[in-house]
Amino acid sequence: MDWELIGTAALFTLLTLLGLAPLRAAGLVKDHQLPEPLVKILDQMTDPARLRELLAQRQPNQKIKPIDAATLAEQVNSRVIGQEAVVNELAALIASRSAKVHRRRPIGVFLVSGPPGTGKSELGKAIGDALPGWGGHYLVEMNKLKDAASLNSLFGAAPGFVGSDRKAGLMNHLLDNPNTVIILDEFEKACLDAQNAFLAAWQEGYIRETTQSTLVSTTDAIFILTSNAKEKEIAALAAYQRQASGNQNAGLLTSEELSERCRAILRQELPSPVLSRIDRVFAFAPLSPEALAAITLKILTEEVADYGLTLRPVPPQILLSYVDQYDRPGFDTRDLYRHIERDFGTAASTLKAEGVREIEIIYDAKTTEMTVRAVSDKSQAPKAAPRTKGGA
């Protein structure tokens, strides 16, 4: 009795039942993608051609609900403010591509480029959270991948090397959550080895797990790359597109034309093999004053809610004071978060400790000062934020 053959057959059956790598990686499995023992089993114990035919006929994962583009766009636009054109187009692309029963590549590989702090990373997170039945998102900080050794945490270390006894984060996430959004943040800051490590994932539909040398499918995933490279040129192009969309006589670019122009700009920063595998490049525009005001209100409301408090409508002068300070090139939402926390954190925590549930912010037009106070007892002396002059 050929125990080696039987053992390999058992391994093959286990891999199939678990829905792992090669067979799951494609509707039509190519022999060269399989470890040699499994190729032998396919030839000796089944009909490979019939297997491929059955795999091609299989139904998509019934646990994953069809994606409605309008609903997805609405949910993402509630979190990513001021980039509605990009969000709407991306939602439509995701809905269309995810409906395919047979895929040999990921649902999408999208690059989002533009100024920092405008919501590029948040876009990927919001999409992952909004997709029904999906495994959320997996964030990879590409700026930390400085050499080949740094890839071990994602793909596993080769047998015998340090870390080979530990599971790789990205591989485990994909195995547990085939339908997921993978965010490759600040992609241009990674070393060339790290950038090239994803080429097979985008072209062939799999990533090789180094420790066990198995293939992990990426055909049910969405890759969203973010980049600040050539941010001024990209921002100018996006700003032109936004302006042209409101002027019928202007030369509005199609989404494909805009993508190709962005791709041409980025050729100086990203290698050609990477750019050639990206399905669409999206340009984030600088935030408009209206969008900045909306983001300020969102952050302020969230800051108050973090203390378990509710906030009454905010005077527009308060929002304007922040817009005046941050409506400038180089704006970063993270700076605004810190500023608002500094302005209102102490007052909110003090009122919370006194049992207050609802607060309001009063604006004095003469002194341009803000005052935070409880709604439930207006007779008490108002409790001011630590820094209130003109929102600074």
UniProtKB/TrEMBL annotation:
SMART domains from the xrefs? AAA (SM00382)
Q: Domain named AAA+ ATPase: which ranges?
A: 106-249
Offer one Pfam family short name for this entry: AAA_2
A single BP term in Gene Ontology = proteolysis
Highest taxon in the source lineage = Bacteria
- What keywords are assigned to this protein? ATP-binding, Hydrolase, Nucleotide-binding, Protease
* SUPFAM superfamilies, sorted: P-loop containing nucleoside triphosphate hydrolases
Question: Which InterPro entries has this protein been placed in?
Answer: AAA+_ATPase (IPR003593), ATPase_AAA_core (IPR003959), ClpA/B (IPR001270), ClpA_ClpB (IPR050130), P-loop_NTPase (IPR027417)
**What GO molecular function terms would the record report?**
ATP binding; ATP hydrolysis activity; peptidase activity
What GO cellular component term, any one, is given? cytoplasm
Q: Fetch the PANTHER family from UniProt.
A: AAA+ ATPASE DOMAIN-CONTAINING PROTEIN, ATP-DEPENDENT CLP PROTEASE
| Name this protein carries in UniProt | ATP-dependent Clp protease ATP-binding subunit ClpA
Q: Which organism is it from?
A: Methylorubrum thiocyanatum
